[in-house]
Amino acid sequence: MTLIECVPNFSEGRDKSKVDQIKSAISAIPTVRILDVEMDSNHNRSVITFVCDDGKAVEAAFAGIKKAAELIDMDKHTGEHPRFGAADVIPFVPLDDTKMSRCVQLARELGKRVGDELNIPVFLYAEAATRPERADLAAIRNKSFQYEQLKGAIKEEKWKPDFGPSEVGKAGASIIGARDFLIAYNVNLNISDVEIGKKIASALRARDGGLTFVKALAFYLKDRNIVQISMNLTNFRKTPIYRAYELVKLEASRYGAYPIESEIVGLVPEQALIDAAKFYLQLNGFDEHNLIERKINENVSE
Amino acid sequence: MTLIECVPNFSEGRDKSKVDQIKSAISAIPTVRILDVEMDSNHNRSVITFVCDDGKAVEAAFAGIKKAAELIDMDKHTGEHPRFGAADVIPFVPLDDTKMSRCVQLARELGKRVGDELNIPVFLYAEAATRPERADLAAIRNKSFQYEQLKGAIKEEKWKPDFGPSEVGKAGASIIGARDFLIAYNVNLNISDVEIGKKIASALRARDGGLTFVKALAFYLKDRNIVQISMNLTNFRKTPIYRAYELVKLEASRYGAYPIESEIVGLVPEQALIDAAKFYLQLNGFDEHNLIERKINENVSE
């Protein structure tokens, strides 16, 4: 059995019953295990993380996208997080020994079904991108180019979808792809001026001179009156969590701001936190084999 | 099967072949899995960590003690770490659902065998202690009261062993007991004055006004010309590693000293490092269920 992870993001973060229906549609497919569901009312977005056998991955993701398209009307959707559609981003992630190429294949199969059967325009991104300019998600859709702007632009060659019609209905468009394990990491600051947040996010963002493998946005969290630096760490082995945290802290200090907490949205590999502990405690010679849980399991299989 | 962990400490940290022979004697017993072997030439001490079925724990520990007694002559032993005997300290630690009371029982069985069959005086300590003043290991043997001092004092009532003769032979005495999971944690400093190290160790030590659940000593590491604060964290859930590290750093700063690295000797539960990451990254709302490895395993067993 080849294990695939899929992390669909939907444009519904306030109405739990809708998110539950989407989740149920996905988990009805055999071999699916829902690992996590996160809802953010400020972003008005939810993230469902599931794993399943690679033979069922397309079917499970399709079920979620279909249900989201039934329940979510993008004309009525508002929220902090940029979005194209009801099922906004659907990435496949290889786990264990699964190859990236398999995930790219799954992304294409899913894209074709969504375009053909649901009449939703599909843009392939990341490792599945058909054009270099579509590799980066933030270059496809961002704060200044979202659902509303796509409606007007989709007839242009630049915005020709990879599958489905050159037309944006109430379910919007879906961005489907394959990528490495990503950590969704937010640092909340003790300030409420989002303009300062934007400068800090800019300092973190790879594209603007920050850390490689980091994408960053600043959000204003209305219910708490604070600013959030919201990041995607696209290669935690190379750019570790602690480096992002410390750079946010440094860049914030210029403005008299500091982190009040940080949060990981969805799942994270243990190694990412172990690496942070090794950094802060200067455990320079530490060998992960000395983690007792790993030691005992190692020995069991011998 | 009830799993027991045993962490015997032997007074040999330089001659690998002797340590290997002791290890082989232990691992010859059925169900034994050697998890770790650490040797320290400055301390002239080694620590072997093993797990086994509770029905074999006494036999396995006895085999190690017997071999150590054959190979190690305490009259010839010198090293930084305080010691009573060839097999210096032998604790049993409950894992999973095993009860502490079972480990106490095993300690007593082992003590009796060692006293009767090897003629080695045995002192029960920690949870197995027969006198309140023997609960604390450092109160039994320490820098000012070791093998050499015990030879003269063992006829006194205060030093009447729990098992074995009131006589100290070349194998010295053994301290046997049951305790919770302990983390052996060292912080190496950028100074070579052990007197400063002793002040810092004093500031860490529970007994002298430091952190509860911390025992601390200062050592001079001759081969590196630096000072080491060597600690036992006896309840890492209550007194976490990071708190000990940060207090060493703080107390050292008074003298212009700082940590150059820290090290964990032997095994450590993942949770101890996860807790450190949560502290430093301010992951205040983090739920360990979001560690992907745990999530996948959770789901597998359902």
Automatic annotation (TrEMBL), chains A, B:
<dbReference type="InterPro" id="IPR037064">
    <property type="entry name" value="Formiminotransferase_N_sf"/>
</dbReference>
<feature type="domain" description="Formiminotransferase C-terminal subdomain">
    <location>
        <begin position="181"/>
        <end position="295"/>
    </location>
</feature>
<dbReference type="GO" id="GO:0030409">
    <property type="term" value="F:glutamate formimidoyltransferase activity"/>
</dbReference>
<dbReference type="GO" id="GO:0005542">
    <property type="term" value="F:folic acid binding"/>
</dbReference>
<dbReference type="GO" id="GO:0005737">
    <property type="term" value="C:cytoplasm"/>
</dbReference>
<dbReference type="InterPro" id="IPR051623">
    <property type="entry name" value="FTCD"/>
</dbReference>
<keyword id="KW-0963">Cytoplasm</keyword>
<comment type="pathway">
    <text>Amino-acid degradation; L-histidine degradation into L-glutamate; L-glutamate from N-formimidoyl-L-glutamate (transferase route): step 1/1.</text>
</comment>
<protein>
    <recommendedName>
        <fullName>glutamate formimidoyltransferase</fullName>
        <ecNumber>2.1.2.5</ecNumber>
    </recommendedName>
</protein>
<dbReference type="InterPro" id="IPR012886">
    <property type="entry name" value="Formiminotransferase_N"/>
</dbReference>
<dbReference type="InterPro" id="IPR004227">
    <property type="entry name" value="Formiminotransferase_cat"/>
</dbReference>
<dbReference type="InterPro" id="IPR037070">
    <property type="entry name" value="Formiminotransferase_C_sf"/>
</dbReference>
<keyword id="KW-0290">Folate-binding</keyword>
<dbReference type="GO" id="GO:0019556">
    <property type="term" value="P:L-histidine catabolic process to glutamate and formamide"/>
</dbReference>
<dbReference type="InterPro" id="IPR013802">
    <property type="entry name" value="Formiminotransferase_C"/>
</dbReference>
<keyword id="KW-0369">Histidine metabolism</keyword>
<dbReference type="InterPro" id="IPR022384">
    <property type="entry name" value="FormiminoTrfase_cat_dom_sf"/>
</dbReference>
<dbReference type="Pfam" id="PF02971">
    <property type="entry name" value="FTCD"/>
</dbReference>
<dbReference type="Pfam" id="PF07837">
    <property type="entry name" value="FTCD_N"/>
</dbReference>
<dbReference type="GO" id="GO:0019557">
    <property type="term" value="P:L-histidine catabolic process to glutamate and formate"/>
</dbReference>
<keyword id="KW-0808">Transferase</keyword>
<feature type="domain" description="Formiminotransferase N-terminal subdomain">
    <location>
        <begin position="2"/>
        <end position="180"/>
    </location>
</feature>
